[in-house]
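Request from the bench team (R.T.):
"We need a structural guess for the complex before ordering more zinc ion. Sequence and SMILES attached. Just send the tokens back."

Command: build protein-zinc ion structure.
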Amino acid sequence: MLSGPSGTGKMLLARAFAALLHCSSPRDGEPCGTCASCRLHAENSHPDLHFVYPIVKNKSLKRLVSADVADLWQTMLDRYPEMPEEKWLEILEAGNSRIGIHVEEADDIVRADSFPPYTSQYKIFIIWLPERMRVEAANKLLKVIEEPSEGTVFIMVSDNELQVLPTIFSRVRRIHAGRLSEAETRDYLRRRFGFSDEKAMRYAPLCEGSLIRACELGSHSDENEEFLAFYQEVMRAAYAKKVGVLRKAADRAAAFGREKISRFLNYMARMIRENFIYNMRMPQLTALTPEEEAFSTRFSPFVNHANVEDFLAETDRARRDVERNANAKVVMFDYFLLTIILLHRKTK
Ligand SMILES: [Zn+2]
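Reply to R.T.: structure attached below.
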């Protein structure tokens, strides 16, 4: 079981390890990438590779097994190889339903384990989020997990090992996957998004060791600069109490559309948090690009213990309101007006 916080590339590692086990000519502990097995792995269609993952109960599914939503899973692996769970919920259109690995799935695993591998030495099951496994499913799996048939390999990928049922937990060998170093994050940004060395250097500290965060930044890196400019404009106008400017800014923000507004408000929250830390004279703890830091040097005194909590709470509230389809112009104007009050709140 690979375990550790989400965004540490555990699924990528599990997939690479599975490919390595099947590869006909591995080199230096890496799959070759070109043999027949590796090609099948690249498409996630190797007959001896089985993915098991949590799904939602749905009347249109006759049986609650992963294989029935395999097309959605393929979309997930292609689009979000860093495996943020909330994206899987989105793809499943789970709404408020819980996701789980159900007992029918366990039946299938037990049956599949009893057959020898098709084309290779190993039959590999990659179980994503074993913490979502239902008790009945876990009970059925105990025996095969403890004593798999010859050639069967289980690889579990857990974001939260404390939630894995103790019966399963006690039967696995755990390998901890911690947050990525800055050098690893830089390398990832360069390879996945084609960042220059200089750009990767600037962005890596902002990822906080998470590939999911790196991916958000990588896909919207131009946005980061746009958001910084917008954040500065809003804060300056709020400080100068220029209500007219804030109203126009709210209209412009509303035109972003919900998802981008939500990303902007996340950006605001990050800057507010970072400015506060900066203000506490702990610049070594901040994760800012040089441009952000230049602004923070001057602006950070205005984010302080008197307003930081309300700032973050209001930013979060505005984001949730927008995500719940409230009128974005109204929400953003309200929020920007509040920044006037918060910025001018007296420190004792
Ligand atoms: Zn190979």
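Two things stood out. The chain is about 55% helix and 5% strand. Strands lie at 2-3, 49-52, 55-56, 99-100, 123-128, 152-158, 175-176.
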